Amino acid sequence: MSLSNDQVGHIARLARIALSDTELEATRAKLDGIFGLIEQMQAVDTTGVEPMSHPQEFPTRLRPDVVTETDRRDAFQKVAPQTEAGLYLVPKVIE
Amino acid sequence: MSRSDWEVVIGLEVHAQLDTASKIFSGASTAFGAEPNRQASAVDIALPGVLPVLNRGAVERAIRFGLAIGAHVAEKSVFARKNYFYPDLPKGYQISQMDLPVVVGGTITIRVGEGESAYEKTVRLTRAHLEEDAGKSLHEDFHGMTGIDLNRAGTPLLEIVSEPDMRSSAEAVAYARTLHALVRWIDICDGNMQEGSFRCDANVSVRRKGATEFGTRREIKNLNSFRFLQQAIDYEVQWQIDTLEDGGRIEQATVLFDPDTGETRMMRSKEDAHDYRYFPDPDLLPLMIAPEWKARVQAEMPELPGAMKGRFMDDWGLSAYDATTLTASKEVADFYQATVSAAGAALAKPCANWVMGELAARLNKAELDVAASPVSPAQLAGLVARIADNTISNAIARKVFEALWNGEGATADEVIDKQGLRQVTDTGAIEAMIDEVLAANQKSVEEFRAGKEKAFNALVGQVMKASKGKAGPAQVNALLRKKLGA
């Protein structure tokens, strides 16, 4: 299977990655390589094998429903580019 | 073509905020109303290197919901990443569930309409899954920028998805109300709609009567009141019918409801629809729910509204309407049951009348919750008992109720004694009053003798007045007829 440049462009847009034409071509070649690997894996007969969602066969750990975190806003906001009134400021977004 | 040629098809997606103390994947508090970002931990703001750890309390609430609606609670469910970019979603993905949700199937029975035309209907649920809420974007002007508050980020949500089983806005609202009552009943969500604890999205389509295929649907997002849910669906249905009858086509889209204009408007078309690229979250192992855990949650489950309603009808002889009203919320049901248990099952019906009538009206007027009622179940039971044994009439009972409401006595008996409200049943005393009234109202007596039944009622009223309401109307009636030889 081979991806089209349009498909690669679409994925790049979804990931908010700007690609020049040459980068697009290089990225397409890399992704095609990954698809080649997937094709190889799909050749394995997995009849009767339950799909796994995680390579480890353990159940997830659970924590008790208890508040353990303290307020560290001031420390966190020191590394933010811009804050005001306790809010993180970002370029205006209107959906 | 008219409205009646069309069938409306509605499915609802409800986001219920689970009322845990801490967030679904971090130990930050979920309390509402904190200063911005004071309850946003390193996990919630997605600092590099942090890992989510699932909250047992959130899972337990999902189990409780699944069991309450008779659904399958999955032994194994999986968390997935739902990828999209928005500043109030710091990770760039929301942790949700996709292929293997925690709750599958189940049903909710709703009662639609009132009186003679009321009917019951069972709505099927598709699934319910656990996920995290996003933060909040504040679009007020911060020098042309947007402010981000991540306190809500990571709050546990249960997204409850119904099948497209509803056929009118009334059915959709009845379903939403029943679901709202249920999540509060089983204590998994506070149901506060103003604070966004219970939010509805409605998928709406129309098709010609008799059609087997569904029409193209549009999704109305974020309806945070039952009234808006009804208005938005009604507007949307009419818009879709008008569009189709004018020869237009419905395009799949997401729309928003504007409460000011009462209209829905397009938010994004199918072309702009998000491509979420779900995949299992490698940071989280599968959620396993052992049968023992389910059994324990089942054992701790309170009696559910449906079962309680049936019991009220079977054991206490209440009508379907009364039983539905009294099980509309846990608080009302608790109050009613406490009243009946004090008054005795034989008085279940008059207790129901008082809880749904005088008490509900008075609470409503005072804008009080039944849990904060100044009149306790024991006091109300005492009052109902005195009506039943003819100590007081219904009219006097309302006075006693008022006195109890105002704290003018600890029990109905105390108020009755203190204010001398005991019903007069002594035949001699009533006859004496009747004689006085007859003597003073010769004109009415003559009119009655001439065949005017209205005059009789006037005389009864006069006697009741003379007794200051303490005589029983039935007894006055009988004695008066005897006196007049009628």
UniProtKB/TrEMBL annotation, chain A:
It catalyses: L-glutamyl-tRNA(Gln) + L-glutamine + ATP + H2O = L-glutaminyl-tRNA(Gln) + L-glutamate + ADP + phosphate + H(+); L-aspartyl-tRNA(Asn) + L-glutamine + ATP + H2O = L-asparaginyl-tRNA(Asn) + L-glutamate + ADP + phosphate + 2 H(+). Keywords: ATP-binding, Ligase, Nucleotide-binding, Protein biosynthesis, Transferase. Signal peptide: none annotated. GO terms for molecular function: asparaginyl-tRNA synthase (glutamine-hydrolyzing) activity; ATP binding; glutaminyl-tRNA synthase (glutamine-hydrolyzing) activity; transferase activity. InterPro entries: Asp/Glu-ADT_sf_sub_c (IPR036113), GatC (IPR003837). It is an enzyme of class 6 (ligase). Pfam families: GatC. It comes from the Bacteria. GO terms for biological process: glutaminyl-tRNAGln biosynthesis via transamidation; regulation of translational fidelity; translation. Gene3D superfamilies: Glu-tRNAGln amidotransferase C subunit, N-terminal domain. Its EC number is 6.3.5.-. Heterotrimer of A, B and C subunits. Belongs to the GatC family. This is Aspartyl/glutamyl-tRNA(Asn/Gln) amidotransferase subunit C. The lineage of its organism: Bacteria, Pseudomonadati, Pseudomonadota, Betaproteobacteria, Rhodocyclales. The gene is gatC.
Automatic annotation (TrEMBL), chain B:
The keyword Thylakoid does not apply. It comes from the Bacteria. Gene3D superfamilies: 1.10.10.410. It holds the Pfam family GatB_N. It catalyses: L-aspartyl-tRNA(Asn) + L-glutamine + ATP + H2O = L-asparaginyl-tRNA(Asn) + L-glutamate + ADP + phosphate + 2 H(+); L-glutamyl-tRNA(Gln) + L-glutamine + ATP + H2O = L-glutaminyl-tRNA(Gln) + L-glutamate + ADP + phosphate + H(+). GO terms for molecular function: asparaginyl-tRNA synthase (glutamine-hydrolyzing) activity; ATP binding; glutaminyl-tRNA synthase (glutamine-hydrolyzing) activity; transferase activity. Its EC number is 6.3.5.-. Residues 334-484 form the Asn/Gln amidotransferase domain. Transmembrane segments: none annotated. One of its GO terms (biological process) is glutaminyl-tRNAGln biosynthesis via transamidation. InterPro entries: Asn/Gln-tRNA_amidoTrfase_suB/E, Asn/Gln-tRNA_Trfase_suB/E_cat, Asn/Gln_amidotransferase, Asn/Gln_tRNA_amidoTrase-B-like, GatB, GatB_Yqey_C_2, Gln-tRNA_amidoTrfase_suB_CS, Gln_synth/guanido_kin_cat_dom. Keywords: ATP-binding, Ligase, Nucleotide-binding, Protein biosynthesis, Transferase. It is an enzyme of class 6 (ligase). Allows the formation of correctly charged Asn-tRNA(Asn) or Gln-tRNA(Gln) through the transamidation of misacylated Asp-tRNA(Asn) or Glu-tRNA(Gln) in organisms which lack either or both of asparaginyl-tRNA or glutaminyl-tRNA synthetases. The reaction takes place in the presence of glutamine and ATP through an activated phospho-Asp-tRNA(Asn) or phospho-Glu-tRNA(Gln). Belongs to the GatB/GatE family. GatB subfamily. Heterotrimer of A, B and C subunits. NCBIfam families: gatB (TIGR00133), PRK05477.1-2 (NF004012), PRK05477.1-4 (NF004014), PRK05477.1-5 (NF004015). This is Aspartyl/glutamyl-tRNA(Asn/Gln) amidotransferase subunit B. It comes from Thauera aminoaromatica S2. The gene is gatB.
